[in-house]
Give the backbone structure.
Amino acid sequence: AQSVTQLDSQVPVFEEAPVELRCNYSSSVSVYLFWYVQYPNQGLQLLLKYLSGSTLVKGINGFEAEFNKSQTSFHLRKPSVHISDTAEYFCAVSDRGNQFYFGTGTSLTVIP
Amino acid sequence: ETGVTQTPRHLVMGMTNKKSLKCEQHLGHNAMYWYKQSAKKPLELMFVYNFKEQTENNSVPSRFSPECPNSSHLFLHLHTLQPEDSALYLCASSQDPGSGGAGTQYFGPGTRLTVL
């Protein structure tokens, strides 16, 4: 079975500063990797995904993530955050079937 | 209307009530999911339907009863719930990986359920 660990439950960062949200997974099989964002009172919105190919994946809103197979990590980064990036971020792993495994989420707070 | 919609957005019910949550997807997907989201916990997958057939039931209590009449609609029937069932219930859909899709899930806005 797969599991996902998001190491930081809360990340405060000043506006226009860079941010990295960490995600590690455990799996014995090839996986797909995802980052989702959840704004207050809304469902989850797909930010980006890694299926195959280039290990650096670019998503919406200026976010990117890098798949590191040897470290089983898929950290999310943004070079300069905005107030509107304040939200909950979830890392997820799929076993390439219908099963998705989500982390507990990281709450990003952007400080003016 | 596009994407995945859920109704109602908010629901308050007593422990003896019977209610239903509705989910509709307009993406042409053939797999649909129910998740429970509680504070400070990972999303809990409850049910999975592929081509209207239930393929996963992750030890969900029988007071939750799913129904999938077609690939576009998914219901969650609720009866004799407990206060600990209060949570955000999220519906998602995807193209079934076995039919060539990558399985990316698209979520609805959720139903905020409060059980008194």
Observations:
- Residues 95 and 102 of chain B are 7 Å apart (CA to CA).
- The mean pLDDT of chain B is 88.
- Chain B is about 0% helix and 55% strand.
